[in-house]
Design brief:
It is a single chain. Helix content is 34%, strand content 19%. It has 258 residues and is an alpha/beta fold. The strands form 3 sheets. A 7-stranded parallel beta sheet has the order 3-2-1-4-5-7-10, with helices on both faces. A two-stranded parallel ribbon has the order 6-11. A two-stranded parallel sheet has the order 8-9.
Length: 258
């Protein structure tokens, strides 16, 4: 077994992740479904290839110590089958990390942890099932909160709407840089299981997004008084016990989102 990290999914999270891994001294290689994106990545100094090339390259597969899937699910069945085929090609020793989403949880109010009910029909839940079935003894599923970071913050979307709902629901967000640190922690210390990855800060939507609007120089966010439920509060204490302070960047650090 070699020490190559293969990342499938090179978007808003994947590109800074692979750059960070390389800066940490890892040999990181990207794969994509798009030949055009392969060329774009190569022009940025990021080694990449297509998924078809990876599937046919026995040397690259055999030296893959960590395989990270960091891409949203596609609607077509071909995508799931391609993912299944790829996972099945990985050596038994390869550690598989999948960046899932807290969106798999069923609608509820109150605290939710890794054992709370999920929507089994959700597209992301289907990939979770595939990962845990194909790699039951060597996989990590990371259920990420709403991602914020460079040039990405929901307040810009909310500011464009005349009315926004659920002002009293809490937010479940996490900074991009914290997610990268979490993934790197699991690369260094592979641990099997499902982990929520979310900030411990859970202000209400009205409180948080109006403070964000001020920070970004936007008009106050308009909310309708649709309901008073707090919604789900995602508990990441399981992750915190394993890697204390790995999620430490405040969601009020708006400078990191500019």
């Amino acid at each position: 077994m070699g020490n190559n990290i293969v990342l499938w999914g090179v978007g808003w999270l994947g590109i800074p992740l692979v750059k960070s891994l390389k800066n940490e001294g890892y040999c990181a290689f990207c794969i994509t479904r798009s030949p055009e994106k392969k060329e774009l990545l190569a022009s940025s100094g990021i080694e990449a290839s297509t998924i078809e090339y990876f599937q046919a390259n026995t040397e690259l597969i055999s030296t893959c110590s960590t395989f990270i899937i960091a891409l949203p699910p596609a609607k077509d069945s071909v995508f799931l089958e391609q993912m299944k085929q790829t996972i099945q090609l990985l050596p038994a020793e390869t550690h598989l990390i999948y960046t899932s989403s807290i969106g798999v949880f069923l609608p509820t109010s109150g605290l939710v942890d890794e054992n709370s009910p999920i929507d089994e029909t959700h597209d992301v839940a289907q990939i979770e099932k595939l990962v845990s079935t194909c790699k039951p003894d060597n996989s990590t599923i990371l259920r990420l909160g709403g991602l914020i970071g460079p040039k990405r913050h929901p307040v810009h979307f909310l500011a464009k709407r005349n009315q926004n709902s659920n002002p009293q629901q809490v937010v479940n967000l996490v900074q991009q840089q914290d997610v990268i640190r979490v993934i790197e922690a699991f690369v260094l210390k592979p641990t099997v299981g499902v982990f929520n990855v979310c900030s411990s800060e859970h202000p209400t939507r009205k409180e948080y997004y109006n403070e964000a609007a001020t920070a970004f120089g936007l008009e106050p966010i308009s909310f309708e008084n649709s309901n008073n439920e707090s919604g789900k509060i995602v508990d990441s204490s399981k992750l915190e016990r394993l890697f204390p302070l790995v999620v430490s960047t405040s969601i009020y650090n708006f400078e990191s989102c500019k």
